[in-house]
Amino acid sequence: MIYLDYNASTPVDSRVLDALLPYLREKYGNPSSSHEFGALCRAGIEQARERAAVLLGCEASEIIFTSGATESNNMVIKGIAAASPKGNRIITSQIEHPAVLEPCRFLEKQGYPVTYLPVDRYGMVDPDDLEKAITPETVLVTIMHANNEVGIF
Predict the structure, then answer these.
(1) Residue 105 to residues 35, 94, 123, 134, 138: CA-CA distances in angstroms?
(2) 153 part of a folded domain
(3) Which of 145, 81, 91 is nearest to 118 (CA)?
(4) Are 150 and 123 within 8 A, CB to CB?
(5) Quick check: 117 and 131 in contact, CB under 8 A?
(6) Terminus of the chain with fewer CB atoms < 10 Å: N or C?
(7) 46, 110: one domain
């Protein structure tokens, strides 16, 4: 069998699994709790946050762990729209994942202008269309780099 759905789930690297196992077996507490199990789990999360920050060259306080892509997309798209003082326009493509399209549709209902760019028969956005769509009010362009449905990148 050949597995081709790596956008959905991937095998876990053995080093990651080894680092994670103590938190699945012994240190499984609620990291928001004040008891010892919670404190051990919280310490592990903070260590992971520090390691990620070093790898990414940023501050640990800039690392936010989420449950997955849908939560991340919602947080970023809605957060940028709400926090931007310069404008409120969002640009995306017509074939984005629902994790992007749904927050855009939600914001549209809230009065945010959203431009849904068309794609060609290969699923590609024309860069000229994107350039024409950008205005001084544009606060976010959210277009996937690689499309898992059609394999374009």
Answers:
(1) 42, 11, 20, 19, 16
(2) no
(3) 91
(4) yes
(5) no
(6) N
(7) no
Q: At what angle do helices 98-109 and 69-83 cross, to 10 degrees?
A: 30
Instruction: Give a yes or no: residue 38 inside a domain.
Output: yes
Is 87 contained in some domain?
yes
Rounded-to-integer distance, Cα 131 and Cα 53, Å = 33
Name the least confident of 2-6, 56-60, 114-118, 140-144: 2-6
Whether 24 maps to a domain, the answer reads yes
Q: Tokens 């920050």 sit at which residue?
A: 53
What is the pLDDT, as a whole number, of residue 84? 86
For the segment 115-142, the average pLDDT, to the nearest whole number, is 95
Say whether both 135 and 90 belong to one domain: yes
Q: How many domains does the chain have?
A: 2
Q: Which two tokens stand for residue 105?
A: 């549709």
Kindly calculate the radius of gyration of the chain based on its CA atoms and give it in whole angstroms.
20
Q: Which domain holds residue 38?
A: 14-62
DSSP codes of every residue in 53-95: HHHHTS-GGG----SSHHHHHHHHHHHHHHH-SS--EEEEETT
